[in-house]
Each structure stands twice: as C-alpha cells, then as structure tokens.
Write a structure and sequence with these properties.
binds magnesium ion, binds adenosine monophosphate, 6-stranded mixed β-sheet, alpha/beta, 7 helices
C-alpha cells in the first residue's frame, strides 16, 4: 500500500507528454500550445478610437466650450478621407481609425450638437453640421495607439501555454487559423460488473444502473478530452479480456470496478495476462484503497474502485493529472487551496480520507463545511459537495487549516 502523494508521483512519472499536432483554431481551446506564436501585425493595427465621440485637435480646445465643424463621420470599419484641420473635427465611433491631424477623441457625453450657423469656420465648413465641445479629454486618452498591445513579429504566446478563451481570441487576432498543440489523449471507459444494467433499463433484482461510465465520460469531457465508452464488461475472464484488449489500444483506459480483492475482481489478473505492467494496486486513502495504475507501452490503465464516489475521487486525484501531463501541462497536479474547517470532524482508521465538502469565502479565507454523506456509494450526498478535504486520521477541531481540492477544475 502506498501513500496518495507517492501514487500521484508514479502516475505523473509514467505519463508521457504526447506529440504535437496541428489543429484548426476551434479545437485549440483547453489544449497546450506546442509552438511560440508571433503576431503577423501590429495590434491594434491602426490608431483606434476607444470611445464614441469626436476626433479633434487638442489645440482647438484651449478655450471651452469650442464649436467645431464636423467634416465626416467615421463608423468602425471605415477609413478617414479627410485630415483634421484647425476648427474641424470628425464624428468617430469606437473602433474606427483616428484621422490624421487629430490627437484627441472627446467622448460624446462631453459634447452637444451645435447648429451649422454657429460654426466659426471657413465658408465651406460653415455648411456642415457643427458640434460644441463642452469638456476636453486628455490628449491621446481615448486613443489606442497602433502597436501598443503588440508589435508585428513579437511573440504573443509561448509554447506551453494552456489555451483558454482569451488565448483563442488572441490567436484569431494574429491570423492563426491553425495552430500546433500537444495532442489530447484518446480515452476508453469500461464499466465492469454483472449487476450493471443500462440507464434505459429498470433494474431487476440485484441489479443497479451503470453510473460510472457516464460520470467518467463527463469527467473526461470536462478535462477537454473526448472519451469513448466500451460499455459494461461482465465479470468473466473472457469478456473482460476482450474489452480490456480493445481498451488498451487507446492512450488511456479507465476501468471502473473489479479491482478490489473480491472473488469476481478479475481486472488485475486480466491486465497481467495481457502483459500490462501494474505499478500499484492499493493506496492508503479512503475512499479508493483499491486504486490500480498500470502501463502498457506508452499507454496508461487506471482501475478505479466501482463505488460511484470512489470512481470520481480517483479520477480527480490521479486520472486528471495524468491526462493533463499527457496534454503538456507544466503543472498537472490537481489544484488545492488552504481552507479552515467550519465544524470539527473526526477521521477514523489509518488512511488519508478525502471528505466531501462545500467551500465558501469568508473575507480573505476559504471556509470548508463538511458534507455529510452515507459513504462512497452515496452520489446524492456527494453531489452537494464542491471540494474534497484531505484529512489524516485523528480529530480535527473547528478552525483547523486543511488542504482542499476544489472539484470541477
Ligand atoms: P467493485 O469495485 O466492482 O467491487 O464495486 C464496488 C461497488 O460499486 C459495488 O456495489 C458495485 O455494484 C458498484 N459499482 C461498480 N461499478 C459500478 C458502476 N459502473 N456504476 C454504479 N455502481 C457500480
Ligand atoms: Mg464489481
């Protein structure tokens, strides 16, 4: 039996980072970038108004209010045709290029319409619509200057970055329709157990519905990985061998059930028969003592205990980090936060116990409220939790600082 930390270390050591592949932009979200990305242009590509208002020369605003003639109107997407000269301005919308000659955009709230007759300009301008500037904004204040975010040729994203929506947007803004990422692993999910029936079946005597295939598929999807279900294997050597042999063709096989020491827990034997190397099969933790980890070439196999809560806990603590390591995450260990116990609790036995809890914020600290459940089969209770607390055996009074693993991250 090994400690959970040691188990995680073994898992991470044996999880290979996968090769780089090129994917279209929509598939990049959640993946790790496998190449540095440079900008193909200055961003912004031109001096751009950050406000709806009027592009003016600040020299014209020495005395306020100031009446100016509006020489043109510039919605976003248009190019200015007329430079701004003394006494004139252009109406400008957010995102439009600032015309030559203008050094300031006065926001529309600081102006009011002025009649053409009041415009003290040349004959030609006096025919134009006028505007009265009531307040000045600082020169350049409302202008995003060409190249101020990034210069053409500059690196905008380094290899190794996890791509999230802002990075995906950034890739689009520098013209990357395709991008090299670390390949995501292919995953197969196999439930085992003669008692299991499908979701659409009303369980007969002694039967229960297969829960774990669905929760594991959902866990994988949240991890950014598409998993394939291999259905339910019966507790026979032949059936298990057939399904597991298919499963180990994938980068990762997740088996639920059949890994403890019961007479029908045949998964370890089948794995050995198929030449899969088992690295550990019991971990000093609760739930999840019978958690198995094995490798087959570069492929990984996890045997998670069948109780629905244990399966999800095992996924979170061991499978998710493995998937992230394969996908190129620099720091794939499950994130933890320090929390304070709201109510004292006692942990019996001799194993690190992962206790379902709800985290809430109190000022600067996270406070953890233990969620009472009826054990590792109780998905009803567990579904109310949003974190796991790692507690050693013993008494933990209210106020104790504990390590919490937020779930769903
Ligand atoms: P096992 O790990 O196979 O000994 O199973 C432990 C417990 O989990 C038993 O009560 C099983 O019926 C239950 N179990 C195993 N697999 C599943 C599954 N896929 N969905 C729901 N419960 C399961
Ligand atoms: Mg079983």
């Amino acid at each position: 039996m090994i400690e959970p930390q040691e188990a995680l270390q073994i898992v991470l050591e044996k999880s290979p980072q996968l090769e780089a592949v090129e994917v279209p932009l929509p598939e990049a979200d959640g993946a790790v970038l496998a190449e540095p990305v440079v900008s193909d242009s200055d961003l912004p590509p031109f001096d751009k108004s950050a406000m709806d208002g009027y592009a003016v020369r600040s020299a014209d605003l020495a005395r306020l209010p100031a009446d100016l003639a509006v020489v043109e109107s510039l919605p976003a997407g248009t190019a200015p045709t007329r430079p701004i000269q003394g006494g004139t301005c252009a109406k400008i919308m957010t995102g439009a290029p600032v015309p030559e000659g203008a050094d300031t955009v006065v926001r529309v709230e600081h102006t009011e319409p002025a009649g053409a007759g009041r415009v003290p300009c040349s004959e030609r301008h006096s025919l134009l619509q006028g505007v009265r500037i009531l307040r000045s904004d600082l020169p350049r204040r409302n202008i995003c200057v060409r190249g101020e975010d990034v210069r053409k040729g500059e690196t905008v994203l380094e290899a190794g970055r996890v791509l999230r929506p802002p990075e995906v947007g950034l890739l689009a803004s520098v013209g990357r329709e395709r991008v090299r990422i670390v390949r995501r692993p292919t995953v197969a999910v196999l439930a085992t157990g003669d008692e299991l029936v499908s979701v659409s079946t009303v369980p007969g005597p002694g039967q229960i519905r297969d829960t774990n295939s669905w929760s594991l598929l959902a866990c994988c999807r949240r991890a950014g990985v598409e998993a394939e279900s291999l259905g339910v294997a019966r507790d026979t050597l032949d059936h298990l061998r057939d399904r597991i042999a298919r499963g180990i063709e994938r980068d990762v096989l997740l088996v639920s059930g059949g890994v403890s020491v019961g007479e029908w827990d045949l998964v370890p034997k089948v794995l050995r028969d198929l030449g899969v190397a088992i690295h550990f099969a019991t971990v000093r933790m609760k739930p999840g003592k019978p958690t198995l980890f094995a490798t087959h070439g570069r492929g990984l196999v996890f045997g998670l205990p069948g109780n629905p809560v244990s399966t999800i806990v095992g996924f979170h603590l061991f499978v998710l980090p493995a998937l992230r390591r394969m996908m190129g995450w620099v720091d794939p260990a499950p994130p933890t936060v320090a929390a304070t116990l709201a109510v004292g609790t006692e942990v019996r036995g001799n194993r690190t116990t992962f206790v379902p809890a709800v985290l809430r914020r109190e000022g600067e600290t996270w406070v953890a409220e233990v969620v009472e459940t009826r054990g590792s089969a109780d998905l009803v209770g567990f579904s109310r939790a949003d974190a796991l607390l790692a507690l050693e055996p013993g008494t933990h009074p209210a106020g104790t600082r504990v390590k919490a693993y937020p779930l769903g991250v």
